[in-house]
Write a structure and sequence with these properties.
By secondary structure, this protein is mostly helical. It has one domain. 66% of the residues lie in helices and 0% in strands. It contains 10 helices and no strands. α4 packs parallel to α8.
């Protein structure tokens, strides 16, 4: 029988394996532990200094388990939160911020009207979605700036100073948003959700729960936005009808009317300063 010779790569692999095994065999075991401390459960020393139930003061209570202590610091209970918990609350608010912007501000009406404007022009993706969303966010901040300022002055600043509790801060923070939503909400929408929830309403804003006011505001915003979109469509439909009639009279029935009408619609929109008219009147709808 012929013996197979080992190749150079196999010999190198065997040598590396033998060297690794040798290093593991001659190395001493290393024990890892906290410096100057014993692990929980060590038979020599326990982290429990005193038996349970023997603490008489808060200082002695903190010594019962010195290795496992988690503290959340309040400044004498006046609302000052330590850094770690403040970061957690901030991240939670950032996660909820998109929902608040969409449901409790002017963003929904603005973005829907801008979408109808683009569809009426027939430009498909011009302006692109990123520009429309950015413009809607800027206009939302412009419209909501007085409300945001009130929330900051009446809720956040007193809470940071410790003059009001957390519950009072939440009530004062939601009040400006409620005052913004209520004038934009139609009464029939409020009555609809009040009737669905089985509650009675005396016509006062204070008696409307947030669970009713927010969906009522959203339904009213959708109705208003679609009505504005319909009004924007009317002049562009007239242009489409004129172009289609002209093409039919010329016998050019195979040519799509939208191909010819789109440049005329863009020209009409630019000459009439359409962006200024639409955005200006759209913003004014929140102040009437």
């Amino acid at each position: 029988m012929k013996k197979k010779l080992l190749t150079g790569k196999q010999i190198i692999a065997i040598i590396c394996l033998l060297v690794t095994v040798g290093i593991l065999c001659i190395s001493k075991p290393i024990s890892v532990s906290a410096t100057g401390q014993h692990l929980t459960g060590d038979t020599e020393q326990s982290t429990i200094i005193d038996p349970p139930g023997t603490a008489q003061t808060p200082e002695e209570l903190n010594k019962l388990n010195t290795e496992n202590i988690l503290t959340v610091t309040y400044n004498e209970g006046n609302g000052q939160i330590n850094g770690a918990l403040r970061i957690l609350i901030t991240l939670t608010l950032i996660a909820l911020l998109p929902t608040i912007i969409i449901m409790m501000t002017s963003f929904a009406r603005i973005i829907i009207v801008l979408h109808f404007t683009r569809s009426a022009l027939g430009t498909q993706t011009a302006p692109p979605n990123q520009i429309l969303i950015g413009l809607a966010l800027i206009l939302t901040f412009f419209i909501m700036e007085p409300t945001i300022t009130r929330v900051y002055d009446e809720a956040i600043v007193p809470f940071e100073e410790g003059t009001i509790t957390q519950e009072e801060a939440l009530e004062k923070g939601i009040a400006p948003l409620r005052e913004f939503m209520y004038p934009q909400t139609q009464l029939k929408d409020v009555e609809l959700f009040m009737d669905i929830s089985g509650q009675e309403w005396d016509g006062d804003i204070e008696s409307i729960p947030n669970s009713v006011l927010i969906p009522s505001f959203m339904i009213s915003e959708l109705r208003t936005a679609f009505w504005i979109g319909f009004m924007i469509y009317i002049p562009f439909i007239v242009v489409d009808m004129v172009i289609a009639s002209t093409l039919m009279s010329m016998g050019m029935m195979m040519l799509p009317p939208t191909t010819i009408s789109m440049p005329f619609k863009i020209l009409l929109f630019v000459v009439a300063d359409g962006w200024s008219l639409i955005i200006g009147n759209l913003v004014r709808t929140f102040y009437w």
